[in-house]
Every structure is written in C-alpha cells, then in structure tokens.
Amino acid sequence: MTLPVLVLAGSRDGEQDVLAQLGKVSHKALLPVRGEPMLGRVLRTLAVTPGLGPVTISIEAPDRIRDIAGTAEILKAASSPSESVAEALTHIGTPCLVTTADHALLRPEWITEFLGKTRDCDLAVGVALKATVERDVPNTKRTYIRLSDMSFSGCNLFWMGTPRAEAVVELWKRLQKDRKRPLKMARTLGFGTLLRALLGRLDSNALCQRIETLTGARVRLIPLSDGQAAVDVDKPADLTLAEELLAQRSS
Asked: Residue 201 — φ and ψ, nearest 5°?
C-alpha cells in the first residue's frame, strides 16, 4: 500500500515574491536551483522514494505548474497554508505525507527515516535539533523553536496519520488567524503553557501533551539525523546555500 503525498507550493506574493523575481519566474515554486525548478526537484525525490503513492500539489495558480506536475493532481490553494492543508485532507484523506515545494534539498533517505519513526501517534513533525544543524550546515542561520529540553528547526515534513490529525490542522488555522492578536492566541493555547514557554520551562513532552488536550491527537516531534533537512529555500541566502550543498553532493 502506498502513502499519498501533499506538496504545498503556494506563495502569498505570487510574481512579487522576492525569490520569484530573483529567478525571473512567475512563481516561487518554479525558482531554478542549479538549473531545475524547486518543485521539480521535490517531485523527482518523491518519485524515487519507496512506498509513496499519488502526489497532490496545492498551489494558487495551477496553470503555472502543469508542465512539470506530471501525473500529480493539482488543487487550488487556499489563502493560507493551514487552510490549504485542511482542504486537501478532505480530498486526500489520511494517512498522508505533507511537504513543501521549497524543500529543494529533500532526499529519499530523510523521508524513509521520518516515516519509520511515526508509529504510535496521529500526527508527526520532522525536526532537526540545533546541534545537528550546526554540525551539518555550520554557516546557516535558521529559526529555532526553543524548549527547555531541545531547540529545533522544522524540516517541512509532516505525517498526517489518522483523522485526528485534522483537529491539529484546525488548531493551526485558529492560531494562524489570530497571529496578530497575541492575547487571543494565548487564550487558545492556555496562559499556563504560554507562561512556561516564556520562562523557558516548557519541554517537548508538555507541548505535545497540551496539543493532545486541545485536539485529542497524539503528536510527536521526530528529530532527523541530517541537519541539512532543515534547509529550505525561503530567502536569497537560502538559495545560495542550497546550490552550494547540491554542488557538494554532485562532487
């Protein structure tokens, strides 16, 4: 049995996106990385990863990618990533793997490692610990989430294992909607959880338990062994870094 895959390829800024302008393309997902569009690189990696099945791409401009989508189905993206995932899940169902079009360095072994550790949960998130990133990509500047027991950066790999994962996406939608209203976000997460986070006393187990309390879904953070998995192409410096790392692979 193969696992369906959702690729998020949306961009709020469209042609005005800094990376789209840099690459002189109509959409960020089409930005060339060492001569190949980012989305094409991701689709090629998914195609050679054992156990993966039909691919669905979510993008607000479907006509822009038909030439490279191949056999993938294309859905029109919603106004935010969380809403796009929610709408796609009603179409794809669970379980499924979710990744992004700007994951230009994506490797089959990262996916295999990640999926091999997704047992006993409803939703899993791939992460790279700060020490791992600094070991494998010493010159990068990543954004880290700091908990009392770990600091990590996301790897744009998500496993939606059961229908309960949809409740986590709904929570994500609420938080994203209120991102400019901190007090409302605090009410949603709980003031106790927020206070522990601000004081540096919130650990990963407590965070996952709080999400389970709010959604009923068991959530796991899964550290990957390669720090390069945390590198996506989100700004011009990331493009330079990704091309350097790909050149190293080739050599």
From this structure: -110, 5
For residue 14, what pLDDT is reported? 63
Q: Are 223 and 132 in contact (CB under 8 A)?
A: yes
At 144 the three-state DSSP class reads: coil
Find all residues with CB under 8 Å of 187, minimum gap 6, and list them: none
Q: What average pLDDT does this structure show over 226-249? A: 95
If phi over 0 gives left and psi between -120 and 50 gives alpha, with beta otherwise, what is residue 246?
alpha
Q: What are phi and psi of 197, to 5 degrees?
A: -65, -45
The model carries a pTM of 0.94
Nearest by Cα to 147 from 198, 222, 209, 212? 198
For residue 182, what pLDDT is reported?
A: 66
pLDDT bin (cut points 50, 70, 90) of residue 15 is low
Measured in Å, how far apart are the chain's first and last C-alpha atoms? 36
Query: What single DSSP character describes residue 1?
Result: -
Closest CA to 224 of 108, 121, 96: 108
